[in-house]
Amino acid sequence: MRLSGKVAAITGAGRGIGRAAAELFASEGARIALLEIDEKSGIEVEKRIRTAGGHAQWVKADVSDPESVRNAFAEIDRAFGELHILYNNASVFLGKEDRAVSELQLETWRKVLAINLDGVFFCCKYSLPLIIKSGGGSIINTASSAAMIGVPNCDAYTATKGATVSLTRSMAVEYGPQKVRVNCIAPAAIYTEMLRESSLDNPSFDERLFLSTAPLRRYGKPEEIAQTALFLASDESSYINGAILVADGGITIT
């Protein structure tokens, strides 16, 4: 029970990595606030965790809307009375709309930044007072391999992930003295709906070539990223602050 006595808020908890992390964190003793805009998936995960004997509550949140996020953390304060872990997992990849800068529509740029970057800012802004009041804890942000290497034709997404890395480092310095560690996971090629949107549904993506050159010769699993997040959420990583953990099976070094 590596998270016994902890309260964790996870954004985008209704599917993919967020869902895997919510179920894993709950199995390790944490009480979970499931921040999810979609009611159906949020309630479904809540029921799954409760049926398994865990404690979870769906809290509706649109991470791109500051008022929605503020209300969500006010609800967490009322329902749980404390908060120790924030996992900023929610992201969007608009594969059919994201482009190189010269071809990128302003509406797409603003939408991607609103969710992927503003959402991290809003959640950190409104969770930090509660985390500090609770005695400190861990914030885990989500970047991408796109923050580590150049990736063409998705400049809005890449910009948000690079900014997330920089924000993670500055927050780690700022809030470390208040016992809040801030770290970041940079995944790649994790088999989720986002992967299908970004790669598998792209006619130019050569899956056979990718799998033959990826160092581990396979995709990653949401559960594997959830395990990385669990480590950063737990006291086992108590001296890790401002780190960017690249969880991509070695793809970005080939």
Which architecture would the CATH scheme give at its second level? 3-Layer(aba) Sandwich
What do we call the CATH homologous superfamily? NAD(P)-binding Rossmann-like Domain
Would you give the CATH topology? Rossmann fold
Q: What would you call the structural class? A: alpha/beta
CATH top level is Alpha Beta
Radius of gyration: 17 Å
Q: Structurally, how many domains make up the residues?
A: 1
Tertiary shape: globular
Helix share, percent: 40-55%
Q: Enumerate how many helices there are, as a single number.
A: 8
Percentage of residues in DSSP E strands? 5-15%
What is the number of beta strands? 7
Runs in which pLDDT lies below 50 for 5 or more consecutive residues are none
Q: Distance N terminus to C terminus?
A: 37 Å
Q: Please state how the strands of the largest beta sheet are arranged side by side.
A: 3-2-1-4-5-6-7
How does the major sheet shape up?
7 strands, parallel
Arithmetic mean of pLDDT? 94
Order of helical and strand elements: EHEHEHEHEHEHHHE
